[in-house]
Amino acid sequence: MAVRSTSRSPEVPAPVIGGAPIGGALPALSGIAGDNGGVSTTSAPSDARNPNGRGERLASRSKAPRMSDVARLAGVSQQTVSRVVRGATNVDPDIRRRVQHAIEQLRYRRNPAAAALASNRTMTIGVVSFELSVLGPTVALYGISEEARQHGYATRLVTLASLERKDIRAAFESINSDTVDGVIVLAPLLDAISVLDDLDIGVPVVTFQQGSQPSPNSVSVDEVKGARMVVRHLLDLGHKTVWHVQGPPGWMATSARVQGWAEELGAAGCFAPTPLATSDWSAAEGYRVGRELAARQDVTAIFAANDPFALGVIKALDEAGRDVPGDVSVVGFDDVKEAPYFRPALTTVRLDFEAIGHIAVGRVLSMIKEEAEGDIPLLEPRLILRDTTAPPRS
Amino acid sequence: MAVRSTSRSPEVPAPVIGGAPIGGALPALSGIAGDNGGVSTTSAPSDARNPNGRGERLASRSKAPRMSDVARLAGVSQQTVSRVVRGATNVDPDIRRRVQHAIEQLRYRRNPAAAALASNRTMTIGVVSFELSVLGPTVALYGISEEARQHGYATRLVTLASLERKDIRAAFESINSDTVDGVIVLAPLLDAISVLDDLDIGVPVVTFQQGSQPSPNSVSVDEVKGARMVVRHLLDLGHKTVWHVQGPPGWMATSARVQGWAEELGAAGCFAPTPLATSDWSAAEGYRVGRELAARQDVTAIFAANDPFALGVIKALDEAGRDVPGDVSVVGFDDVKEAPYFRPALTTVRLDFEAIGHIAVGRVLSMIKEEAEGDIPLLEPRLILRDTTAPPRS
DNA sequence: AAGGTCTTGAAAAGTTCTACCAGACCCGAC
DNA sequence: GTCGGGTCTGGTAGAACTTTTCAAGACCTT
Q1: CA A236, CA A230: separation in Å to the nearest integer?
Q2: Which residues of chain A are within 8 Å of residue B156 when distances are taken between CB atoms?
């Protein structure tokens, strides 16, 4: 929280409590009030406020005070109120205070639709996310929301119902128009990213990608490296090779992790067994392929493409009577919060998804301001050593 | 900001690719076009369209066509275009088609800010959520987003940074204004709900609550019942009593689950040991208190207030050499997706959070339409029996 | 022919921001 | 001491784009 330009909107610090309504202190007030046909800004709102519980809602909406009401009460022009509200600097401190007081009295709040219309800025950032059941995007979403709010931006969420091209397109369409000032895409899927290419979104777009090269408008994690670290670790322990449970097709994370795994294995001159395919990121899939792996006695090290996989794999191994890490070492990816409490505690790779959200927002904002910048550096994954890995039984 | 003034009239985007401008098919067109000073909708713009990749973005924003452009091209009034766009029924099919054609040609899209200003409706639903690390709210959020979109509504997300009253208030403030047509509060916390009471949000509000009574504007799960089911199950197995690892203070889920646990224990005339307190919903906390429980030989059945707790508890038990479910039975709550793959597979209570999202949206929408309705029925939890419970060793 | 219904259009309303202008004030210079 | 120029503050006018309201015209039915 902390920062925030103090200048921003209504919630400016504490304004002068107590004291007579500023009216008396304002020589100009009466004159100006007349100018607008005495629509009585003073009492009307406060009286009509509580007719009954029901009507309340409607009432408060239709008769909301507007800038000119505030201006009249404060004895200034509507334009000056606008300046105060927007946090412009060139307003006399005294006048500013007077206006703020009036704003409070009237319980005035800016009408964002009108502001957006006039300024052509919506002060909101759109987020397109695929599902929310996967750890990464969810945490990143939280990071985005918080960061955006700190900069005075709202967050507009669109979830992708499916991976069919037309649905993806529809999702983007729904955010396309003038509803947002910038977009962050939390859908690290090949299809989603490619749809993006032939779509003309009229505002800055930042994507979240996994395993891609650094670029000015995508924040990505060096997952290839993460995967290599996993394999390296396992090889260092003495395993002859590492089996891989790969993620479902279409996800960038899947290919990045496969790539890193294959690269490191190749660099070490090891045989690379065919990765086991899955259809989603669930523990159920991990369990399914885990049973196949458990049946093979030559499997001593497994790199699961995410933590739930690892959980399922370990369960399958356990049921087959194979000890982890005694007989087989297992490593996950993501470092879910529960990983330390798996039995054994899971060795895995940590990615800072919340940071991804922060960074993405930062970049979108600077793109909006048209500040020049370079590539966003890749985020470094960290290998977290816990108890699911050990040297192979010799 | 760059362009603007130039954006005035002549700027209708690229229409008509190949084929004659539909002018020929429109008897009225020429007359009307003249009426506007022959601003030539046809060619001029297409030239100015692709100056270079950079300008594109800005250009597309400032020179967006508006309804009157469409109207002119289609040879109808702007008002008629509005009707077509809004899907009003009373438009001649022929005219509607003509307008739609024009819309496509110009790539027209409605300006939501202007629409919101004029109609006083924003077509968006606000969601106030506390964190996103807890399973329930996250899944519910997804349900909300999908359901809302299906009804043509967007979702605006505000996350609660902390539980301090002022932060909670700030979050609501930020959504208060005229930015949304309705609000769903996914913060099943005593404080959040109470702040709500003395806040005047000008639109319908639906809350997600746990363990509360049915009401017209809150969708809640009968967690008291869920907790009772857990205890009943454990008692039926022959346990003398059930220990409870309760959630962190302030959460409705915490009190509801405690209440159900105490009620059922009381009804059965059992001694109710003091629940073990926690400070958050993490597995780490479950592990911490789990160690205390593991040290007591008289503990044979544990009801953990959520699944991560259960995971931590089981780990602590395991480390203490106590078998689950042989020595101690453990039941969780929530049924996270991974629960079946815990070892042993976790017996727990399932809540349908996604449904909660759907229901909440449905209710908000009907409140917006001011349709009368009764209480939202409580959602029923389901006890999912798996492998962490067994009769006590006798 | 009168009365209705349906379709279409013209004008006003909704609230804020931007651009531009005018006056006040301050400074040094004449 | 007063004048010119620059700076700062506040004001006026108009633009941003759609929806709503009301009225008029077309066409059909009784």
Answers
A1: 10
A2: 124, 154-157
E-assigned strand segments in chain B: 124-130, 154-160, 182-186, 205-210, 218-221, 243-245, 301-304, 329-331, 348-350, 382-384
- Do A284 and B340 lie within an 8 Å CB cutoff? yes
Distance CA B110, CA B67 (A): 8
In this predicted model, what pLDDT tens digit does every residue of A164-218 receive, in sequence order? 888 888 888 777 657 899 999 999 999 888 888 877 788 899 999 999 999 999 9
Q: Which residues of chain B fall short of a pLDDT of 70?
A: 1-63, 176-177
User: How far is CA A288 from its chain centroid?
Assistant: 32
Residue A11 has pLDDT above 60, yes or no: no
Question: Which residues from A are below 8 Å from B312, CB to CB?
Answer: 341
B60·A202 Cβ contact <8 A: yes
Q: What pLDDT is recorded for position A63?
A: 66
For tokens 């702040």, the residue is B195
- How many whole angstroms separate alpha carbon A118 and alpha carbon A110? 13
**Chain B partners of A367 at a C-beta cutoff of 8 Å?**
none
Q: What is the pLDDT of residue B177?
A: 59
Question: For nucleic chain D, which protein residues have CB less than 7 Å from any of its atoms?
Answer: A 28, 76-80, 89-92, 95, 114, 117-118; B 7-8, 64, 66-68, 78-79, 82, 85-86, 108, 110-111, 114-115, 117-119, 121
Q: What is the mean pLDDT of residues A41-61?
A: 32
Mean pLDDT of A231-249: 97
Judge whether A139 is closer than 8 Å to chain B, CB to CB. yes
Greater confidence, A97 or A43?
A: A97
DSSP string, B240-303: S--EEE---TTBHHHHHHHHHHHHHHHHTT---PPPBP-SSSSHHHHHHHHHHHHH-TT--EEE
Residue with tokens 């707790």: B309
For residue range B104-139, list pLDDT tens digits in order.
999 898 899 999 989 888 999 999 998 787 788 899
Q: Could you count the other beta carbons within 10 Å of the beta carbon of residue A341?
A: 25
Q: What is the pLDDT of residue A18?
A: 29
pLDDT of residue B394: 73
Query: Within an 8 Å CB–CB cutoff, is residue A158 touching chain B?
Result: yes
Report the gap between the CA of A219 and the closest CA in chain B (Å).
21
Query: What one-letter code names the amino acid at B228?
Result: R
Whether the pLDDT of residue A44 is over 80: the answer is: no
Q: What is residue A373's predicted lDDT score, i.e. its pLDDT?
A: 81
Per-residue pLDDT at B22: 33
Distances (CA, A) of B155 to A115, B185, B268: 20, 12, 46
Q: Which residue has the tokens 């929301």?
A: A145
D15 closest protein residue (CA to C1'): A118
**By the CB < 8 Å criterion, does A320 face chain B?**
no
Give the Å distances, CA to CA, from B327 to B20, B228, B341, B348.
Answer: 83, 22, 20, 18
- The partner residues of A160 in beta bridges, in order of sequence, read A130
Task: Collect all residues with Cβ–Cβ distance below 8 Å to A215 and sequence separation of at least 6.
Answer: A375, A376
Q: Are A310 and A338 in contact (CB under 8 A)?
A: no
CA distance A375 to B156: 29
Q: How many residues does chain B have?
A: 394
Q: How far apart are CA A392 and CA A322, in angstroms?
A: 12
pLDDT at A301: 98
Å from the B284 CA to the D25 C1': 76
- Rounded-to-integer distance, Cα B258 and Cα B230, Å: 11
Answer with the residue of higher pLDDT: A305 or B178. Answer: A305
pLDDT higher at B193 or A266: A266
DSSP strands (E only) in chain A: 124-130, 154-160, 182-186, 205-210, 218-221, 243-245, 301-304, 329-331, 348-350, 382-384
* Cα A33–Cα A35–Cα A38 angle in degrees, nearest 5: 50
Report which of A251, A248, A275 is spatially closest to residue A261, judged by C-alpha positions. Answer: A275
